[in-house]
Write a structure and sequence with these properties.
It is built from no helices and 11 strands. By secondary structure, the protein is mainly β.
């Protein structure tokens, strides 16, 4: 199984980024997919997840700003991040598995830096 995350970068506060995660080697359509993030000195936290049937979950701090989606034909999960704030700065990881907090397989992480 491989998960290849991309789309991170440097953006000013209030800006937007879209992360992508291309999955291979698994039955993508059946799996829950998620985005986690880890800021320096902090624990990794679940940001958003989406089940195979399309049910979504968001941590409170990103509700209304981030949107997770998936394209099963492309084996890809996305995280659209709008109204970014400096506190969103972190390494973002995609993960695959089951349920609301899938964690069986992990991608390599992509850095998101939001400047004030």
């Amino acid at each position: 199984v491989q998960l290849q995350a991309s789309g991170g970068g440097l953006v000013q506060a209030g800006g937007s980024l879209r992360l992508s995660c291309l999955a291979s080697g698994l039955a993508f359509g059946f799996r829950s997919m998620a985005w986690y993030r880890q800021a320096p000195g902090k624990k990794r936290e679940l940001v958003a997840s989406i089940t195979g049937s399309g049910n979504t979950y968001y941590t409170d701090s990103v509700k209304g700003r981030f949107t997770i989606s998936r394209d099963n034909a492309k084996n890809t999960v996305y995280l659209q991040m709008n109204s970014l704030q400096p506190e969103d700065t972190a390494v973002y990881f995609c993960a695959a598995g089951w349920g609301r907090a899938p964690d069986d397989y992990w991608g390599q992480g992509t850095q998101v830096t939001v400047s004030s």
